[in-house]
Design goal:
OB fold (Dihydrolipoamide Acetyltransferase, E2P), 2 domains, five-stranded mixed barrel
């Protein structure tokens, strides 16, 4: 009987420890999505959470420094200065006026991003005011 009690206590300790580790890991891996306007209205503990923010890269705002890249995201009439400090290279599609999604934490009026994702450029869209060839004009 004594061996069974020790076994049950040991298994219980292991299960509780694994559950605590899983709960802490889950809490750290949560990422909230906010718009730039929402981000500026957050207060208190909400600002310490890991979050994602999306917007358009402001033209002429990309600056490369040693160990970081600074740029400005714009959206909904608001702007957000961002410093990218991640170790991965920036995507090729990360250029002026591209859509970008940054993941990190806000600090002192600046968003420190560890991950930057850029949407594909709009090079596949029709040119503004362009005409599309129809079958009647293509055969002439």
């Amino acid at each position: 009987m004594k061996k069974q009690a020790k076994f049950v206590v040991g298994i219980s300790v292991i299960v509780v420890a694994l559950a605590c580790l899983a709960w802490l890991g889950y809490g750290e891996s949560k990422t909230y999505y906010h718009t730039i306007a929402e981000l500026q209205s957050l207060k208190g503990a909400e600002l310490t959470h890991r979050m994602r923010v999306g917007g358009t890269v402001a033209p002429g705002s990309i600056r490369h420094f040693t160990g970081r890249v600074d740029f400005v995201l714009e959206g909904e009439g608001k702007s957000l200065p961002v410093s990218y400090v991640g170790s991965d290279p920036l995507p090729d599609t990360f250029v002026d006026k591209s859509q970008a999604l940054v993941e990190g934490r806000p600090t002192d009026g600046r968003f420190v991003a560890e991950v930057v994702q850029a949407k594909c450029a709009s090079k596949y869209e029709a040119a503004p005011g362009g005409t599309v060839a129809t079958s009647s004009t293509a055969t002439k």
